[in-house]
Design brief:
The complex is a heterodimer.
Chain A lengths: L2 E7 L8 E7 L2 E7 L12 H4 L15 E4 L2 E4 L2 H19 L4 E4 L6 H14 L5 E2 L2 H4 L1 H10 L17 E5 L3 H4 L1 H12 L3 E5 L5 H5 L2 E3 L6 H14 L5 H7 E2 L1 H8 L4 H8 L3 H13 L3 E5 L1 H4 L4 H14 L10 E3 L6 H6 L6 E2 L3 E2 L3 H11 L11 H10 L4 E5 L3 H4 L3 H9 L3 E6 L4 H5 L2 E4 L8 E4 L4 E5 L12 H11 L10 H11 L8 H4 L4 E2 L23 E2 L18 E6 L15 H6 L4 E4 L1 H7 L6 E6 L3 E8 L7 E5 L28 E7 L2
Parallel strand pairs in A: 6-7, 6-16, 8-9, 8-12, 9-10, 11-22, 12-13, 16-17, 17-18, 23-27, 24-26
Antiparallel strand pairs in A: 1-2, 2-3, 4-5, 4-18, 14-15, 19-20, 20-21, 23-28, 25-26, 25-28
Helix pairs in contact in A: 2-22, 3-22, 3-23, 5-15, 9-12, 9-13, 9-15, 18-20
Chain B lengths: L1 H13 L5 E8 L2 E8 L18 H11 L5 E5 L1 H12 L8 E6 L3 H7 L11 E3 L15 H9 L6 H5 L27 H10 L8 H5 L6 H16 L16 H8 L2
Parallel strand pairs in B: 1-3, 3-4, 4-5
Antiparallel strand pairs in B: 1-2
Classes of the chains: A alpha/beta, B alpha/beta.
Chain lengths: 680, 260
C-alpha cells in the first residue's frame, strides 16, 4: 500500500509553479498545487492541474528508432547510439565540425542543456548551438544586456503585487503566464493602475483599468512619445538619471520629435490616453513594466526592448522593489537554457565564447580546445541547411515544424540534411523526419533543476521510474558523447553535472543541490553564503551605468495590399502549450480545446461573408492553411489572430522567417500580411 | 504535542487499528500529504504540522478507491471533519470506517481562514485546546463587483478540483450546452453560478476554493452568502449534524420521515 505526494515544478510556462504529484504504488494518479510554494502558493492553471495526464499516453516513444529504407524501425539503445555516432563522425570528418548544428530544449533541465552545450563545443567542436529562446526572447537578452548589462527579468514575480502602476506590453498574461497574472489581479485589488498595451482586446486587456489598442508594431513610437512627454513636463527622475545612467542627452534629442499628435496618429491611440499613461507611469510609483512576445517578436524586437528599458531608467523605475523591466519567459526552463550557454555566442553564465579568458577556464576543465568563432542561430541553421552547408542536426525536445516561422521552408531545410537526430518523449512531426530517434524520459522520470522566468533555480526530484526503454536526456547525451570518443561525460547523476556547471558558471557558483532542496535560489548567487538575488540592479546596474540608447520608429517588412489585405498576429491559448506535443496528449486539455481558430472582427466576417465555425483558407506569401472562424471583437477590423499549437492548422506556415532582427536574429512572428478566402 | 500525535499514529498502525494513516509530512522545505503505513513507519520522523490545508478528505476518497477494504485513520481539522460529515451523508465514505485524529486550529489560523468553527467535534481523539471561532462581516457586494471578479476567471477548474464536496461523476461545469468550451473570457456568470448553486446547502466554508483560485475571485464569500440564505429558508447548515440531511437532495427521505 502506497500513497505519497512528491513536489515538483510545472513543465509548461516560465512561471515555475510548484506542483505535487500524487503517486499510488509507483504510478502517478493526480496533480495538486503545492501550497507553500513561493510563486503559486497553492494556485495553478488548467495545464498545471493536469500535468500527470500525458505521462502514460500511448503516444509516448518507448524505443529508440533508426530510419531504414525510409521507415523508422525500433532498435536497441546500443545500435541507435553507435549508428548516430558513426554518422555524425563521418559528416564531421567529411565536411568539418561546422557542418553540424544542435538545438537544445528549453523544456529540459539545466543539466541537460549544459551537456548539449558541452557536446557541441567540446566533442563536435562547433558553436552551432542554439535553442528556442532565439524565437521568443533573444531580443530581450540582447536589448537588456545592452542597456542594463543583464538580460533577465529584473524583479521577482511576487513584486508585481506591490506595484502602483503596471504597464503590460504585448503580453496576454492571464493566458500565457496565468500565475503572474494572479499578482497583477492582487495589485489591481489594491488600487493599482493596470494598463495594457496590445492591439488585441485580450483577456488581461478586458480586466485592465486601461487598454490602449495600439496599431500593431508601433510600440517604439508610443514609448518614445511617453518619454518625450515625461521629459517635456519635467516628470523624469533627475537624481536617478544623474547617478545611475549615461546617454540621457542623446535620448532627449531623439525623442523630441515624437510629439503627442504625431504619436497618436501613428499608434492609433488618443493623445489624452498617451499623456495619462505617461503621467501615471512617472507619478504613481513604484511602476513596473511587464512584457512578452508582442514586444520581442518583431524584426526590430531588440529596439522595442531597448525603448522599454529607456522608459524605466528615465523614471527611476528599475533597481528597486516592485518596479523593473520584466520579460515573461516562455518555457519552464528557457531562462535556464540561456543560462547554460545554449547560445552560439555564449558559454554558460553569459561568458562570451570570444572572451579568451572565459574560454580557457572551460578548456582547462574539459581538457579540450574549444572553437572561438561564434556559431549559427536557429534560423541561420535552417538557412545554411537549405544552402547545403549544414549537413547534420541534433534537435532535442523541440518541434520546429510547428514552432518555427515559414514551416514549409523548415521542412525543405530538414529534408536537405544528410542526417537528423531527434530526442523527444513523443512521436511528432519531427520524429517522422529523423534518421535516428532517441526515446527520452519526461521530467517526472528524472531529477534536475529548472530556472524559471524570475531567475529562480528550482530542484525537482524523480517521481517515478522512466517509462520502460526510455532514458533521461542527460544519459542519452552522455552515451552519444562517449560513442563519439569523449571521455568527459561519465556522470553518475544530474548532481555531478550541476556541480561541474556551477564551478564553471560564476552566476550559479553558490548554488548546490543541497541548498536547492531547502529553497529555490535566484541567480546571481556567487558563493555558498550568497542568499541569491531577489531583484537585479539594486546598487547600480550590472554593467556599471545604465545606458540610454535612443531608438527610432521602424517600418514593417510588408504592408497590407489588395492581395494580402489583413494583418495576422499569433499567440498562445491558456488550454494548450506551444506545439502541443504534451498537451494534446492530455485528455482534460483536449476536451477543452482540440483545434485552433482564426479570430476575425464581426465587420470583416460580414464583408467576407463567413460565419462562426466555418472553415476558411488563410493565405500569405509563404503558404496557406485551412482553419475555423471565430468571430470576435478581440481583434479590430483588418487584424486577425491565430494561436499556434496544432499541426492541423499550423499558423507558422503563414509567418515569415525574414527579415530577422539584425541584433538578435529573432524572426517577425507577430506580423504578417494575409488574405482570407471562403471555401466554396 | 507533535510527538504525542506521532506516538498516537504509530500506535494506531502498530496495533492494526488502521492500515494507513493520512497525514502531513515534510518533503524538502514543503509540507505535503502522505499516507503512513507499517511499511514506512520510519517516515513518521518527517511528520509535520503546519498551518497549511490540503484537501485531505478528498484525498482519502481517492485512496479508498484504490484500497476499498482497508481501514484508514486521518488527520482532521474542523473543516475536514465537516467535509467528512457531508461525504458520509452522500454515501461517498463511511465515517464508521475512519479513525479521525482531530487537531483544533490556532487563533492565527482562525484569523487566516476567517473560520467560525475551528475545532473538531466527532473525532476519535483530539489535540490542542479549542479556540473560539469568529464571525466575519457581511460581504455582499454589488453586481459590477461580482461581474468584474467572474470575468477574471481563467477556467482552471481548480475550485472544483480542490473541493472535497465536488464529487459528482459528471460535472455540470463541463456540459457544453451550459458553458462553451475553450473560450476565454469564459461564459460568466453561468459557470460560477452553476457551481454556487451546487454548493448551496453543501459548502462547509473551508476556503480551499478561494485559496486555490488564480484569479483571486472571492468564491468562498459568494458561497457563504448563498448558504446564509439557504439556512434562512430551509433551516439547514451543512457539516453540522451527522443525522440531518440536505433538504433538497434528500427530499423524498425527509418527506417520508416527517410524514409530509
Amino acid at each position: 500500500m502506497e500513497y505519497k505526494t512528491v513536489p515538483s515544478i510545472c513543465p509548461y510556462c516560465g512561471c515555475g509553479c510548484g506542483i505535487l504529484l500524487e503517486v499510488v504504488e509507483g504510478k502517478i494518479v493526480g496533480t495538486l498545487p503545492l501550497k507553500t510554494h513561493p510563486i503559486n502558493k497553492g494556485k495553478l492553471c488548467i495545464k498545471g492541474w493536469n500535468v500527470h495526464e500525458f505521462v502514460y499516453s500511448e503516444n509516448r516513444l518507448t524505443s529508440p528508432k533508426i530510419k531504414k529504407d525510409g521507415k523508422l524501425k525500433e532498435v536497441d539503445w546500443d545500435e541507435a547510439i553507435s549508428y548516430a555516432a558513426k554518422k555524425l563522425l563521418e559528416i564531421k570528418e567529411k565536411y568539418g565540425p561546422n557542418s553540424i548544428a544542435l538545438i537544445s530544449s528549453a523544456r529540459c533541465s539545466n543539466e541537460e542543456n549544459f551537456l548539449m552545450m558541452k557536446l557541441a563545443r567540446s566533442v563536435l567542436e562547433t558553436n552551432n548551438i542554439d535553442h528556442c529562446a532565439r524565437l521568443c526572447h533573444s531580443s530581450t537578452v540582447v536589448g537588456l544586456i545592452k542597456t542594463f548589462g543583464s538580460g533577465a527579468m529584473s524583479n521577482p514575480i511576487p513584486h508585481l503585487e506591490g506595484a502602483k502602476t503596471i504597464l503590460i506590453f504585448g503580453s496576454n498574461t492571464t493566458e500565457a503566464h496565468p500565475i503572474v497574472a494572479t499578482y497583477i489581479f492582487r495589485a489591481k485589488d489594491k488600487g493599482a493602475n493596470i494598463i495594457v498595451i496590445d492591439p488585441r482586446k485580450t483577456h488581461i486587456a478586458r480586466i485592465a483599468t486601461k487598454h490602449l489598442p495600439i496599431k500593431i508594431g508601433t510600440d517604439i513610437v508610443l514609448v518614445n512619445g511617453m518619454i518625450n512627454e515625461i521629459i517635456k513636463n519635467g516628470w523624469e527622475d533627475k537624481e536617478f538619471i544623474e547617478n545611475f545612467t549615461e546617454g540621457y542627452e542623446e535620448l532627449k534629442k531623439i525623442v523630441s520629435k515624437y510629439d503627442l499628435s504625431y504619436v497618436a496618429k501613428v499608434t492609433g491611440i488618443d493623445e489624452k490616453e498617451i499623456y495619462e499613461t505617461a503621467y501615471l507611469y512617472a507619478h504613481e510609483k513604484p511602476s513596473s513594466i511587464v512584457y512578452c512576445l508582442g514586444i520581442t517578436q518583431h524584426h526590430y524586437g531588440t529596439d522595442n526592448v531597448i525603448s522599454l528599458a529607456n522608459l524605466s531608467m528615465l523614471t527611476g523605475n528599475v533597481g528597486k522593489p516592485f518596479t523593473g523591466v520584466n520579460p515573461l519567459r516562455g518555457q519552464n526552463n528557457v531562462q535556464g537554457a540561456c543560462d547554460m550557454g545554449c547560445l552560439p555566442g555564449y558559454l554558460s553564465g553569459y561568458q562570451k565564447v570570444s572572451d579568451d579568458k572565459a574560454r580557457e577556464e572551460f578548456e582547462k576543465f574539459w581538457g579540450k580546445s574549444l572553437p572561438k568563432e561564434g556559431g549559427l542561430t536557429v534560423e541561420e541553421m535552417f538557412a545554411e541547411a537549405l544552402k547545403g552547408n549544414i549537413k547534420a542536426m541534433i534537435i532535442q525536445g523541440e518541434n520546429p515544424l510547428i514552432s518555427n516561422p515559414n514551416i514549409n521552408r523548415v521542412r525543405k531545410a530538414l529534408k536537405n540534411l544528410e542526417f537528423l537526430v531527434v530526442l523527444d518523449i513523443f512521436s511528432n512531426e519531427m520524429t517522422e523526419m529523423a534518421d535516428v530517434v532517441f526515446a527520452c524520459a519526461s521530467f517526472l522520470e528524472k531529477e534536475g533543476t529548472f530556472t524559471n522566468t524570475d531567475r529562480r533555480v528550482q530542484y525537482f526530484p524523480k517521481v517515478i521510474e522512466p517509462i520502460p526503454n526510455t532514458k533521461p536526456d542527460w544519459q542519452v547525451i552522455s552515451l552519444l558523447a562517449y560513442a563519439l570518443g569523449s571521455k568527459g561525460f561519465s556522470y553518475n547523476s544530474p548532481e555531478e553535472i550541476f556541480n561541474e556547471m556551477s564551478l564553471l558558471t560564476p552566476i550559479y557558483r553558490g548554488i548546490s543541490y543541497e541548498r536547492l532542496k531547502k529553497n529555490p535560489l535566484q541567480w546571481p548567487c556567487k558563493t555558498r553564503l550568497d542568499p541569491g538575488c531577489e531583484y537585479l540592479h539594486k546598487d547600480g546596474f550590472t554593467q556599471g551605468k545604465g545606458k540610454f540608447i535612443p531608438v527610432e520608429k521602424k517600418e514593417p517588412f510588408e504592408i497590407p495590399d489588395e492581395e494580402f489585405p489583413f494583418i495576422l498576429t499569433t499567440g498562445r491559448t491558456i488550454f494548450h502549450y506551444h506545439t502541443a506535443t504534451m498537451t494534446k496528449n492530455s485528455p482534460s486539455l483536449n476536451k477543452e480545446l482540440s483545434s485552433v481558430y482564426i479570430e476575425i472582427n464581426p465587420e470583416d466576417a460580414k464583408r467576407l461573408n463567413v460565419e462562426e465555425g466555418e472553415k476558411v483558407k488563410v493565405i500569405s506569401r509563404r503558404g496557406e492553411i485551412e482553419i475555423e472562424v471565430r468571430i470576435t471583437d478581440n481583434v479590430s477590423p483588418g487584424l486577425v489572430y491565430i494561436p499556434m499549437h496544432f499541426s492541423e492548422s499550423p499558423v507558422n506556415v503563414l509567418t515569415s522567417h525574414e527579415p530577422l532582427d539584425p541584433q538578435s536574429k529573432i524572426p517577425p512572428y507577430k506580423y504578417s500580411c494575409v488574405n482570407i478566402k471562403k471555401i466554396k | 504535542m507533535e510527538n504525542e500525535i506521532k506516538e498516537k499514529i504509530k500506535e494506531l498502525i502498530v496495533n492494526k487499528e488502521v492500515d494507513g494513516f493520512l497525514g502531513l509530512r515534510r518533503y524538502f522545505n514543503y509540507v505535503v500529504p502522505y499516507l503512513f503505513t507499517k511499511e514506512n513507519l520510519e517516515d513518521l520522523e518527517e511528520f509535520f504540522l503546519d498551518e497549511v490545508k490540503y484537501p485531505l478528505s478528498k484525498i482519502i476518497l481517492k485512496i479508498k478507491k484504490f484500497y476499498p477494504d482497508k481501514k484508514f485513520g486521518m488527520l482532521v481539522r474542523g473543516c475536514d471533519e465537516r467535509h467528512l460529515i457531508e461525504l458520509n451523508k452522500n454515501n461517498r465514505i463511511s465515517l464508521k470506517d475512519l479513525y479521525l485524529l482531530g487537531i483544533n486550529c490556532s487563533e492565527n489560523m482562525v484569523l487566516k481562514c476567517e473560520c467560525s468553527s475551528p475545532y473538531v467535534r466527532i473525532a476519535n481523539i483530539s489535540f490542542w485546546e479549542k479556540t473560539r471561532g469568529k464571525e466575519f462581516e457581511n460581504f455582499y457586494k454589488n453586481l459590477s463587483f461580482w461581474i468584474e471578479k467572474f470575468s477574471r476567471c481563467i477556467k482552471c477548474y481548480g475550485c472544483r478540483n480542490i473541493c472535497p464536496l465536488c464529487f459528482c461523476n459528471n460535472c455540470t461545469l463541463e456540459e457544453e450546452f451550459l458553458v462553451r468550451k475553450g473560450l476565454l473570457p469564459l461564459d460568466y456568470p453561468i459557470f460560477h453560478l452553476i457551481r454556487a448553486y451546487h454548493l448551496a446547502g453543501r459548502c462547509i466554508d473551508c476556503g480551499l476554493c478561494e485559496e486555490t483560485c488564480p484569479a483571486e475571485i472571492p468564491l468562498r464569500k459568494l458561497y457563504k452568502e448563498i448558504n446564509k440564505k439557504f439556512y434562512r429558508i430551509f433551516g439547514y447548515k451543512p457539516g453540522e449534524n451527522i443525522e440531518e440531511k440536505h433538504p433538497l437532495e434528500f427530499l423524498e427521505e425527509i418527506k417520508e420521515k416527517n410524514g409530509i
